Amino acid sequence: MHYANRSGLLWLLLISGANVLHAQEREDVHPYLTETFFIDLGVFFPDRDTRLGVDGIITGENDDFEFAQATGVQEDDETFSVEFGWRFGKKWSLLGQYFKSSGATGAVLTEDVEWKDVVFAQGSNAVVGQEFSVTRLFFGREFDSSARHDFGAGLGIHQLKFRAFIQGEILVAGGPNEFRAEAVSHDQPLPNIGIWYKYSMSPRWVLRSRLDWLDASIDKYDGSLINFSLGVNYKISNNFGVGLNYNLVELDAAINEADWRGRIVQRLDGAFIYASAYW
Length: 279
Hints:
Helix content: 10-25%
Distance between the termini: 44 Å
Structural class: mainly beta
Largest sheet: 10 strands, antiparallel, barrel
CATH topology: Lipocalin
Radius of gyration: 26 Å
């Protein structure tokens, strides 16, 4: 009986010691490497570079209509963005991202713009605009999840939505100019492969990076996609922090649809400033 009590006490001490060590280990690294859930809410400040090819657009010596060049405006804005993560089991994670960038600008065209079979004249007052949204879901597995390092890879899907329009005066042979409005749009789910890496520099600071990539011909899409992020996060308390990332989304694709046979080159890159919660 005395031996049984001593054995039970020994097991209790071992379990208590293991719990203390586990708790201490969790306190020594950033919550991104230990907690089950995280969510980042903030503002993305992208610089935008948009070039479109629509049924053989001809603008000077280019086959693509460059929004900023043809209209003489600077393309940048800010947009709400959210990212989230769920770690389940010992090695698996589900990650997500969403943002939408849109805007329209009135400008004087600096060159003729042919959109489908319509020519918008140089010097005309026109309005150009676009919408671009990304919804990303990513399912991954950790391959190295030591105390301060977290490396993993997996498969994901990007739902990309793009719409662009131009409206203004068009050239009419032998008559006055007329007002016209033309638009193109594309909505495509694209699978991709990706990797991520996190390094806890201290209990309060963590370095985070990820890369999603695709280069393939799928349905009406033929091209490449890159979605990259690199940044740091600072833990204010056990469940809240703030962060700064550099984000890049780049799409270069040929589109073959009934109402749009052309090309899109879309690049958005800039700072993502956010508040985070982890639990």
